[in-house]
Amino acid sequence: GSTVYPFYQEHQAGIVTPAQDRLHFAAFDLAPGATRADLISLLQDWTAAAAALTAGRDIGSYGAVGGPYDAPPEDTGEAFGLPPAGLTITVGFGPTLFETSAGLDRFGLASARPDALVDLPHFPGDQLEAARGGGDLCIQACADDPQVAVHAIRNLSRIAFGRAAIRWSQLGFGRTSSTSTSQATPRNLFGFKDGTANVKAEQPAVVDEHVWVGAGDGPAWLTGGSYLVARRIRMTIETWDRTALREQETVFGRTKGEGAPLSGGTEFTEPDFASTGNTGAPLIAATSHVRLAHPAQNNGVQLLRRGYNFVDGNDDLGRLEAGLFFISYQRRPSQFTTVQLALARHDAMNEYVRHVGSALFAVPPGAARGSYLGAALFA
Ligand code: HEM
Predict the structure, then answer these.
(1) How far is the C-alpha of 96 from the C-alpha of 230, rounded, in Å?
(2) Is there a domain that residue 300 lies in?
(3) What residues are in contact with ligand 1 under a 6 Å CB criterion?
(4) What's the gap in Å between 198 CA and the centre of ligand 1?
(5) Is 377 part of any domain?
(6) Distance between CA atoms of residues 244 and 31, nearest Å
(7) Which range marks the domain in which residue 270 is found?
(8) Is the pTM of this model over 0.90?
(9) ipTM confidence
C-alpha cells in the first residue's frame, strides 16, 4: 500500500507503470461557456492536486481537517490516513476539445489538433451508447485501493466544478493485463489469463516504437505522449458459462489453466500458427482471438493493454452487467483500429461480447516540476 510513483516525469505515470488492481476512469466535458483561461487554470489545478494525491497527501494547503471550522474542508477526507496505494493519475484530451462549435474555436486549439485525433471509425458489431463515450478530457486513476482511486476522481471533479463536469465514468476492480514482467498474469471475467503477450515496461525499444508518440509524428506538444483508447465491452458471461471448455479454449487459442498457446508449450511460448492437428485443421483456429490480434496478422502492430474487469450490478433480466473496460495505449490510433477491425470482422469471441462505449484521447507527456499537464499545448 505504500508504493509511490513519481508524478513529475518525462511520460505520464499510469501507462507503463505496473498495472494496479483498481481503476476509476472519468471523462469530462468543459462547461458551456468555459474559456481558454478556464481550461488552463483547470489543468494547473489538476496537476497540483494530482501531484499531492499521488504522493499520498491531502488536497490543498489545509487538507481534510486542518482548515477553518466554518468552511468546507479542502479535501473530502475519505482517504485520510490511507497510504498512497500506488496511485497514478493520467490525463488525456479528447477530439472535441479541439473542435470548433458553431464556428467558434472554443479554446483556440483548432490548429493544434493532431490529425489522428478524430473519433474512431464505426466497427462492425458496435452498439455504442452516446452516454458511455467521448469527452473533452479524461482522467484515469489507478491504485491498489479502490477508496484511493475513487477519492482521486471525486476530488478532481470537485476541483473542476463550474469549469468541467463528468460526462461518464467507469470503475474497474481487477486488472486484466500485466504491463511489467514483474507481475503475474491476471484473469479476465471469462476466466482466462489476460496480458500474457502484452507490451511490457521492460521492453524499452518496443515501448518507444509502439507506445510513445515520437518527435515528428504530429504536433510537438504531444511528443512523449500517447493515445488512449477506451472501450466498454459488455461480456455475456451467462452464455459463456454454458459453453464447453473446448469451445472456450478454441475462442482464444490458448488453454484456460496455463494460458499456453494451443500449439503447445507454456504460457510464454510463442504461438505457432502454422501447426495443425490430426485432421489437418490449425491448432490455433483462424477465428481465434489470439491469432487475429497477433502482430503477425496486423502488420507488426502492438498495443499496450491496460484494461479492467467491471461488474456494475445487473440488468433487467437478472444478468450481471459485467465486462471488460478495455484500455490500450499506442503511438497512433491506427494501431488500435487495425487490430479491432480484424477482431470485429472475424473474432469467435464476438458471440460473447458487445462494445457499448468508446473514446479516444491524446495523452500529453508528463508535466515538468513547476509546470502543468498539457502546458506545451498553450505555449
Ligand atoms: C490477447 C481477452 C478485447 C487485443 C488476449 C488474450 C486474452 C484476451 C485472454 C490472450 C492472453 C494475452 O496475450 O493477453 C480479451 C477479452 C476481450 C479482449 C476478454 C474483451 C472482452 C481485445 C480488444 C483488443 C484486444 C478490443 C484490441 C483491439 C489483444 C491483443 C492480444 C490479446 C493485441 C495479444 C495477441 C498476441 O500477440 O498474442 N485477449 N481481449 N483484445 N488481445 Fe484481447
Answers:
(1) 16
(2) yes
(3) 188, 190, 192-198, 231, 233, 235, 252, 254, 289-290, 293-295, 303, 324, 326, 336, 339-340, 343, 353
(4) 9
(5) no
(6) 50
(7) 181-364
(8) yes
(9) 0.99
